[in-house]
Amino acid sequence: MNIITAASMMLDTGKYFNASDLARFYRVTEPRAKSWLDNIRKEKRFETVMDEVTGKIKVISIDNRKRSIDKLQSSVLLMKRPSL
Q1: Is the distance from CB of 1 to CB of 9 less than 8 angstroms?
Q2: What mean pLDDT comes out for the span 7-15?
Q3: Contact residues for 39 (Cβ-Cβ < 8 A; gap 6+)
Q4: Which residues are registered as beta bridge partners of 20?
Q5: Where does the pLDDT of residue 1 fall: very low under 50, low under 70, confident under 90, or very high at 90 and above?
Q6: What is the 3-state secondary structure (H, E, C) of the chain?
Q7: Using one digit for the tens of pLDDT, what is the confidence trace for 39-84?
Q8: How far apart are CA 4 and CA 16, in angstroms?
Q9: Which of 33, 50, 55, 59 would staple 11 via disulfide (CB 3.0–4.6 Å)?
């Protein structure tokens, strides 16, 4: 598990996440999830928006892609990409 996977999931869902949401989703500790969110927010390859009231973060794009790799592959294949 790495921050790219977490950011991709956040981009797929289009929702705002905080550390406890990520920790619950990936079954990791809350400090680890918080470090992922901090890295996602600080790295230039991720474009994020932060909700000022709740402090949750939403990923807008990864490397200027507005959709995840899985969604791009599905649209090119004209079907959901099969799992291997």
Answers
A1: no
A2: 90
A3: 3
A4: none
A5: low
A6: CCHHHHHHHHHHHCCCECHHHHHHHHCCCHHHHHHHHHHHHHCCCEEEEECCCCCCEEEEEECCECCCHHHHHHHHHCCCCCCC
A7: 999 999 999 999 999 989 999 998 887 776 666 666 677 766 667 6
A8: 16
A9: 59
Structure tokens given for 61: 């794009």
Q: Is 79 left (phi over 0), alpha (psi -120 to 50) or beta?
A: beta
- Cβ within 8 Å of residue 80, ≥6 positions away: 74
Q: Identity (one letter) of the amino acid at 64? A: N
pLDDT-derived band at 2 (thresholds 50, 70, 90) equals confident
Contact 33, 23 (CB under 8 A): yes
Residue length of the chain? 84
